[in-house]
Amino acid sequence: MTCSRRNFLAGAGAVIFTTGVSGSNLLGRQTLAATMEDGPKRYGMVHDETLCIGCTACTEACREVNKVPEGVSRLQIVRSEPQGEYPNVDYQFTRISCQHCDNAPCVHVCPTGAAFKDPETGIVDVDGDKCVGCGYCLAACPYQVRFFNPETKSADKCDFCRKTNLKEGKEPACVESCPTKALTFGDLNDPNSKVSQLIKQKPVYRSKVELGTQPKLYKVPHGKGEIKG
């Protein structure tokens, strides 16, 4: 690391507040200049909102496997307002987590290389040893899913269990724990993978694709209510 956390923040820490960096300001007027080079694998995920029951087993499994401290979360399941009329009331459950963008704004703005896209898997990750806590990546992410880990003092987020379950040859903890099989994970570069086949077979949408981020988190829309991209 060429500069310490303290030295970097002393020289540039105020810039993030004076330049007005934000997800909308960074990407709202123009898409990113170039797509990051694809590797041999491009891991992605599908969240089937028609199967999700909002049990939060995924969030608890993520917290346990990845030792996520209390007060922060790599994954959230958000419940919509009631849809329909009593007694036929229904809810939509939406996954909020890192999108593992092929064209990740957080990677482009990171001054130290702490935010990076793994060349072997396409997973967007964080090198805590390089993170100086400047907050650029948090501000640049249009999905607002990054946070500062209170224990490591570095940026953190979902990494598809890259350093835990995937390293052991398992699927991400959220996928393994889902009782309704609402989550499907796999290689988007492989047309025969379960995730690629599912995207072909079912209607899917991705969030904020108009920004040019090319997210790899796909969602099968719930049957009720308005679906927004």
TrEMBL record:
It comes from the Bacteria. Keywords: 4Fe-4S, Iron, Iron-sulfur, Metal-binding, Repeat. InterPro entries: 4Fe4S_Fe-S-bd, 4Fe4S_Fe_S_CS, Cyt_c_NO2Rdtase_NrfC, ET_IronSulfur_Cluster-Binding, TAT_signal. Residues 43-71, 85-120, 122-151 form the 4Fe-4S ferredoxin-type domain. One of its GO terms (molecular function) is metal ion binding. This is Cytochrome c nitrite reductase Fe-S protein. It comes from Photobacterium proteolyticum.
